[in-house]
């Protein structure tokens, strides 16, 4: 039995480190601090959440296995300085941490788009973590891992997708309670089909909130076309 176990362990050790990817593509970053920059997007497959406004449900299943070195080679071929690792929920695959570290080692400006439902403590400190705090309107508010907030640094960003006035008031309370605006950039985005962008902008101005209003640039340019 020990010989079988040893053989299995040796075989596993020889296997290349891999991640399941839905797509890798070059586009413009459509949101957050790096909006507008040419960016290589590495979209990992799979997500344990089911937010009601999700626009990347095509990444929940399927995908192809890529060796991490092959991912790095494909990223390099696009010739951009910015790389965004996204999903799905990229941290649902444990080797995502290894990919993030190698991208940083290669000199890229790296951001990670994560749901905030998984511990971010192991993410390389050079990465800008874009933490999506789930509002009640997302239908996944109970999945928020609140311990993540204590790990935030000025390199990081926090995003709220606002689905209603109730969501806005809830998010305003979270920002104030945790003083998030004193730690990192705080982003408020309108849920595309539920809150008119101008309405959210008016709420932010009226309340004098220390947050950044944002819209998804890529949706204006390419709608929800995969790979754009």
Automatic annotation (TrEMBL):
GO biological process, any: tRNA queuosine(34) biosynthetic process
Record text on cofactor binding: Binds 1 [4Fe-4S] cluster. The cluster is coordinated with 3 cysteines and an exchangeable S-adenosyl-L-methionine.
This protein's pathway: Purine metabolism; 7-cyano-7-deazaguanine biosynthesis
Any one GO molecular function term: S-adenosyl-L-methionine binding
Superkingdom of the source species: Bacteria
Residue ranges of the TM segments: none
Reaction catalysis annotation: 6-carboxy-5,6,7,8-tetrahydropterin + H(+) = 7-carboxy-7-carbaguanine + NH4(+)
EC number: 4.3.99.3
Binding, [4Fe-4S] cluster: 47, 51, 54
Positions contributing to S-adenosyl-L-methionine binding: 53-55, 88
Residue stretches making up the Radical SAM core domain: 34-224
PANTHER family associated with the record: 7-CARBOXY-7-DEAZAGUANINE SYNTHASE (PTHR42836)
Function as written in the Swiss-Prot or TrEMBL entry: Catalyzes the complex heterocyclic radical-mediated conversion of 6-carboxy-5,6,7,8-tetrahydropterin (CPH4) to 7-carboxy-7-deazaguanine (CDG), a step common to the biosynthetic pathways of all 7-deazapurine-containing compounds.
Description of how the protein assembles with itself and partners: Homodimer.
Family of the protein in this entry: Belongs to the radical SAM superfamily. 7-carboxy-7-deazaguanine synthase family.
This protein's name: 7-carboxy-7-deazaguanine synthase
Gene for this chain: queE
């Amino acid at each position: 039995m020990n010989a079988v176990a040893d053989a299995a362990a040796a075989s596993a050790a020889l296997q290349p480190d891999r991640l399941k990817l839905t797509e890798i593509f070059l586009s413009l970053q459509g949101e957050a601090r790096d909006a507008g920059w040419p960016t290589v997007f590495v979209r990992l497959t799979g997500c344990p959440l089911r937010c009601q406004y999700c626009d990347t449900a095509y990444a929940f299943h399927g995908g192809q296995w890529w060796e991490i070195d092959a991912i790095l080679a494909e990223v390099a071929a696009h010739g951009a300085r910015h790389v965004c690792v996204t999903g799905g929920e990229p941290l649902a695959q444990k080797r995502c941490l290894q990919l993030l570290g190698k991208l940083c080692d290669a000199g890229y400006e790296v951001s990670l788009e994560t749901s905030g439902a998984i511990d971010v403590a192991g993410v390389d400190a050079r990465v800008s973590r874009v933490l999506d705090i789930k509002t009640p309107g997302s239908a996944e508010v109970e999945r928020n891992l609140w311990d993540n907030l204590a790990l935030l640094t000025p390199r990081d960003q926090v995003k709220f997708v606002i689905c209603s006035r109730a969501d806005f008031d809830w998010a305003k309370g979270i920002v104030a309670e945790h003083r998030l605006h004193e730690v990192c950039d705080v982003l408020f985005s309108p849920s595309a089909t539920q809150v008119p962008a101008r309405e959210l902008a008016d709420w932010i101005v009226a309340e004098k909130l220390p947050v950044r209003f944002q819209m998804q640039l890529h949706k204006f340019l390419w709608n929800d076309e995969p790979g754009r």
